[in-house]
Design brief:
- The protein is mainly alpha-helical.
- The protein has a domain of 119 residues.
- The chain contains 13 helices and no strands.
- 37% of the residues are buried.
């Protein structure tokens, strides 16, 4: 609705009440508005939960790349999840370590076989109903990153396997996958492609997906604000 002053009051109160969510800081980075320095000061007090995804994203956005990498490493070791692997691979590329980026995906299980009915019954309360779609979305993003690592002259495709990303609706995962591909383009110096992926990520109707502030900050680095 464009009522940014009122919105900041709400997200500030939210982070003061639930500091581990970093909602005020995330809002400032996403919208390009608000008191980012004060939000940062409040966030730094709670950035030591280095096994928490939002804390790692805060550290990364704040430029504390060593701490962010250590946090992502611990989370990847614990969960073996493609999300953490993608975050780390792009940090590796940012630091000029493409070989390290390649190793991030080696131990991931990205194409799970259908689980037996008995196993699903036991794990039904632990697994989200869309977990297989989620893995397909991140697998498509990982395969594009790997393809680009193998050929420095290409950029992520917008068709073929990645269509699974665009087809997913009302989920938080497409926005994250699109951010990862935009960041890859930015690191390659492909600014127009990066802008397209960042805007596509931010067009997601899911406000709370993890990478929204990263996509907005990336678009801002390229001279655009998503929220006018």
């Amino acid at each position: 609705m464009g009522q940014f002053q009122q919105a900041e009051q709400v997200v500030k109160a939210c982070q003061e009440r639930y500091p581990g969510g970093f909602s005020w800081y995330r809002w400032c980075q996403t919208t390009g508005r608000g008191d980012l320095q004060s939000a940062r000061a409040l966030s730094e007090e709670h950035a030591n939960d280095e096994n928490q995804r939002d804390a790692a994203i805060y550290l990364q956005l704040d430029g504390q790349l060593d701490r962010a990498s250590a946090s992502w490493e611990r989370q990847l070791h614990e969960r073996r999840d493609p999300f953490e692997a993608l975050e780390l691979a792009l940090l590796d590329l940012e630091q000029g370590k493409p070989d390290a980026a390649r190793t991030r995906f080696d131990q991931l299980q990205l194409n799970p076989r259908p689980m037996p009915r008995e196993a699903l019954a036991m794990l039904g309360k632990m697994l989200p109903p869309d977990y297989e779609v989620r893995l397909k979305i991140y697998a498509a993003a990982i395969h594009e990153v790997q393809r680009c690592l193998d050929d420095p002259n290409v950029v992520p495709r917008r068709d073929g396997e990645v269509q699974v990303i665009f087809d997913a609706k009302e989920m938080p995962y497409p926005g994250c996958a699109e951010y990862f591909l935009g960041r890859l383009c930015e690191l390659r110096g492909k600014k127009d492609d990066a802008r397209w992926w960042y805007r596509t990520s931010l067009d997601s109707g899911e406000w709370t997906f993890s990478c929204r502030p990263q996509a907005a900050a990336g678009l801002r680095r390229l001279g655009e604000e998503y929220y006018k």
